[in-house]
TrEMBL record:
UniProt cross-references to Gene3D superfamilies, sorted A to Z: Carbon-nitrogen hydrolase, HUPs
Pfam families: CN_hydrolase, NAD_synthase
UniProt family annotation: In the C-terminal section; belongs to the NAD synthetase family.
The keyword Zinc-finger is assigned to this record: no
E.C. code: 6.3.5.1
Keyword entries, A-Z: ATP-binding, Ligase, NAD, Nucleotide-binding
Domain CN hydrolase, first and last residues per copy: 1-249
Organism in which the protein naturally occurs: Nipponia nippon (Crested ibis)
Enzyme class (EC, first level): ligase
GO molecular function, one term: ATP binding
Subunit structure: Homohexamer.
Descriptive protein name: Glutamine-dependent NAD(+) synthetase
Length: 668
């Protein structure tokens, strides 16, 4: 309702909202429940009754059960009368989307049936039945047609045929989530739709965390004849954002008039059923009203996207979980430092929103810090209240990483704790020695690989236990109420390779960087040095990545991540994209890489690298089943929950696939 009020106050005559906005897009298996349908209709009844929805065509999204089949629908109404229920035709069912699990596509093109309204709606509208199906609206002055999210991305988008049939305004309600470098595709699709066919296209998208790993990134827009005329924000803490434009329908008609190929196709088009609406979007005396001019779309850089998207997701998660802040094990490396910078960016966004008068954000801040008079003005001061960082040293930690963590904590303002885990590690290993009579040793002291790995894992897992203990009780020791959410900081490449200890500090409540590659995180760190003046990050950037779980040599780190993994982060990123995005198994990946790497590797070296990656990936795939929920940012994410569904018990020899590779290597 606030959005409808704002739209009306700005002179709008048609209001479009995002996909399934009444119940929320992320209901998942709750769509099966009759309660979800009932409560959606109850909300619809309130909207129909509200004075705010009078004299403006309102277009809202909700699930509807028609003849015992559940559809993802738009419900379009005006002055307490439902004009049309338009079911979705092309359902999103790839990647993170599972719409075919809950909904059925409307497969009857240009066909309309009678929908019998439930009594709670009949009592408001006085209607017994309303049109349900693939139709368009004919007002006194124009014709409008609806698309729903995926239909814009489909090769046979409805706007093509609708435009040929005289529809001048296309509307799209979306539930489209953020992926790095994706926003321009959405913009290009919308502008392309109106460039070829003429017309006005308006797109509304969900924005924020809807209770899972995805962040819906707004980017509401209005386009006419191939050019953007209004752009909404991609990331913000505002719960409601309204985009309004005044456009001249005659510009659409004159644009179409000279496209002869369009007009020839239009003369043969199969017409859509039209629902007549006794209402006009224009006024008779609007000749002097100024119209909106085209603008240049401003895209965020990938570094800005990392700074803003996960930060907004963290804020939504924090306020909705009703916790008092975050705790992060800060190691002094790139990954945990990037996570700390994202929290600091969140603090910036919160202070900016409050400064700009966002009362909802201020109310949420006061609940989180438990102070009804508090006003966040300085990001560093706010960070001190809601963010605790913890450096967990061991005898294998260097003074360098300790200093880097401390300096970064000082610069972002977090409440920083230094502790040493050696006593706990010795106690755990001591229990093992007491029970078995054997004492494991690191390989540098003559131990086997099994001993070496087990001793590293003990350190890593104790850090996880301590992280949760301090998250629960740190605020108690400071005389403050509440607990803290534990943040993880394993990047997408490490998860893919399995270069992490199961149930170490990669195990947390949420992970803002779990879908982001090491390469992008390095660029993000450089962005933070320049944008937030965090000079502590310079030494973090220049240091080689290390787990610091093996003994130091002359006080310095001897262990490095890339040496441990047997591959570089740059290589891992390539493997990840080929495996997931290019759908390459071992043999296909080898075939692609002998061409990509022909200047730097022999075919035999490529074969060796590919085999090593797939061995390590398959040996460690079981770790993905317990992976901390991460912000989804990359299309090559190995997230086992929904996005990347694979076995977690593999034949790790890949005997047939590797044999095929060998057969190609020999002649090459």
């Amino acid at each position: 309702l606030p959005g409808i009020d704002i739209a009306k106050s700005r002179g709008a005559r048609y209001r479009l909202g995002p996909e399934l906005e009444i119940c929320g897009y992320g209901c998942s298996d709750h769509y099966y429940e009759s309660d979800t349908l009932l409560h959606s209709f109850q909300v619809l009844a309130k909207l129909l009754e509200s004075p705010a929805t009078q004299d403006i065509i309102c277009d809202v999204g909700m699930p509807v059960l028609h003849r015992n089949v559940r559809y993802n629908c738009r419900v379009i109404f005006l002055n307490k009368k439902i004009l049309l229920i338009r079911p979705k035709i092309s359902l999103a069912n790839a990647g993170n989307y599972r719409e075919l699990r809950w909904f059925t596509p409307w497969n009857k093109a240009r066909h309309v049936e009678e929908y019998f309204l439930p009594r709670i709606i009949q009592e408001v509208t006085g209607q017994e039945t309303v049109p349900f199906g693939d139709a368009v609206l004919a007002t006194k002055d124009t014709c409008l047609g609806a698309e729903i999210c995926e239909e814009l991305w489909a090769p046979n988008s409805p706007h093509i045929e609708m435009g040929l049939d005289g529809v001048e305004i296309f509307t799209n309600s979306s539930g489209s989530h953020h992926v790095l470098r994706k926003a321009h595709i959405r913009v290009d699709l919308v502008n392309s739709a109106t460039a070829k066919n003429g017309g006005i296209y308006i797109l509304a998208n969900q924005k924020g965390c809807d209770g899972d790993r995805l962040y819906y990134d707004g980017c509401a827009m209005i386009s006419m004849n191939g050019e953007t005329v209004a752009q909404g924000s991609q990331f913000s803490l505002d719960d409601v954002e309204v985009l309004v434009a005044t456009l001249d329908l005659e510009d659409v008609r004159s644009y179409r008039a000279e496209i002869s190929s369009r007009n020839l196709a239009a003369s043969k088009v199969n017409p859509y059923p039209r629902v007549k609406v006794n209402f006009a979007l224009s006024c008779s005396d609007d000749v002097a009203v100024p119209t909106c001019m085209p603008i240049q779309w401003r895209h965020h850089s990938p570094e800005e996207e990392i700074s803003l998207g996960p930060a907004c997701w963290l804020w939504d998660y924090l306020r909705r979980s009703k916790q008092a802040g975050f705790l992060l094990p800060l190691s002094g490396g790139i990954d945990s430092s990037a996570t700390a910078c994202i929290v600091y960016s969140m603090c910036h966004q919160v202070c900016l929103a409050v400064k700009n008068g966002n009362a909802d954000v201020l109310a949420d801040v006061r609940k989180i810090v438990n102070d009804e008079t508090y006003v966040p003005e300085d990001p560093r001061e706010f960070c001190k209240r809601i963010f605790t960082t913890c450096y967990m040293a061991s005898e294998n930690s260097s003074q360098d990483t300790c200093n880097r963590a401390k300096l970064l904590a000082e610069q972002i303002g977090s409440y920083h704790i230094n502790l040493n885990i050696d006593a706990a590690v010795k106690a755990v290993v001591g229990i093992f020695s007491m029970v078995t009579g054997r004492t494991p040793h690191f390989s540098v002291y003559g131990g086997s690989n099994r001993e070496n790995l087990a001793l590293q894992n003990v350190q890593a897992r104790i850090r996880m236990v301590l992280a949760y203990l301090f998250a629960q009780l740190t605020l108690w020791t400071r005389g403050m109420p509440g607990g803290l959410l534990v943040l993880g900081s394993a990047n997408v490449d490490e998860s893919l390779r399995g270069y992490l200890t199961k149930y170490d500090c990669s195990s947390a409540d949420i992970n803002p960087i779990g879908g982001i590659s090491k390469t992008d995180l390095k660029n993000f760190i450089q962005y933070c040095i320049e944008n937030f003046q965090l000079t502590a990050l310079r030494s973090i950037m220049s240091a080689p990545p290390t787990a610091e779980l093996e003994p130091l040599v002359d006080g310095h780190v001897a262990q490095t991540d890339e040496a441990d993994m047997g591959m570089t982060y740059a290589e891992l990123s390539i493997y990840g994209k080929l495996r997931k995005i290019a759908k390459a198994g071992p043999y296909s990946m080898f075939c692609k890489l002998i061409s990509m790497w022909k200047e730097i590797c022999t075919p035999r070296e490529v074969a060796s690298k590919v085999k090593h990656f797939f061995r390590m990936y398959s040996v460690n795939r079981h770790k993905m089943t317990t992976l901390t929920p991460s912000y989804h940012a990359e299309n090559y994410s190995p997230d086992d929950n929904r996005f990347d569904l694979r076995p977690f018990l593999y034949n790790t020899t890949w005997s047939w696939q590797f044999r095929c590779i060998d057969q190609q290597v020999n002649p090459l």
